[in-house]
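Query form — protein LLM class flavin-dependent oxidoreductase

QUESTION: What is the three-dimensional structure of this chain?
INPUT:
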Amino acid sequence: MEFGINFFPTVGPEEKPADVYFDEALRLVELAEELGYDHIKTVEHYFFKYGGYSPDPVTFLAAAAARTSRIKLVTGAVIPAFTHPLKLAGKLAMLDNISKGRLQVGFGRAFLPDEFDAFELAMDESRPRFLDGLRACQKLWSEENVVWDSEFYKFGPVTLLPRPYQRPHPRILVAAAITPSSCEQAGHDGHGLLLVPSISKREKVQEMLTLYRKAYADAGHAPGGDEVHLSYGCYLSEDSAEAMAKGREYSQRTNTVMVDAVAAWGTRRSEGYAGYEAIVDKIKKSDFDKSVAENKTLVGTPAEVTERLRTIREWYGDVTISLQMISGNPPYEETARTARLFAEQVIPNFR
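ANSWER: The structure tokens for LLM class flavin-dependent oxidoreductase are given below.
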């Protein structure tokens, strides 16, 4: 198994100025490299405290690349619907060169109605725009004199500069939420997969992973390339009661800002997002203790979290774990403690 830190900010100016957030996050990046974590990752969101301090993963990861030499850099995920593929492919190729090939590119559809409204895009077009943008970037990275003529973009012939450091291009990962067909498509196309197990029942996650892995194998892709990233909230303390109390507090803060971000789903419907109209109610009814008991969050002592991860490995196999240690806005010192405890007392059990 591999392990990394997923930077998912859930703060605004009232709680923490942006410059302080980025200073702390980049200090944590350096600590992650020192402690032997395998990757760092960050999201793309806008406007809300739910992820809004990260409107451009490439900018953050470029700063992270300058402070590290080994750790992998992962977008989790960039949203091709919101950026022209010529711009997105070029930015990512720059980052791949700056980092000497440490980049993995996660692509996502986005799901917040307010973001689509601000970019003046129809949510019902999100899936075709996602696939079109991803495939355009892949072609721009892999080929020269590219001509593109689709429903959304027309350009060429053009040859992207710089060429990616990795050939033919960086590893591609696809973010999926609750739609099994998205997992199946990712496997068929030979991409990796990004999932958040906390939003689905264990059986549903297992179903999606089975579809993904079967599609990957049936398509004849190289064995071992069916890479799966699972994201989990994480808070560790050597005192179990403290871990539970603080973990609950930061989980509730995260849920509060998420409810604000998804509020538009109370009145919106989209064919491309079946079931999302219930998302606000689901978040409001979230049960922290149940989430811990069902291994949907990694909170506790190092020994307790080690046992949770052993169960997760039995359920899902040797996946890559992305730890959301900063969500809920804990103090930097507590996040650094969590990172150290996990690296020193949990990870060695899975190497």
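ADDITIONAL NOTE: The first strand starts at residue 2 and ends at 7.
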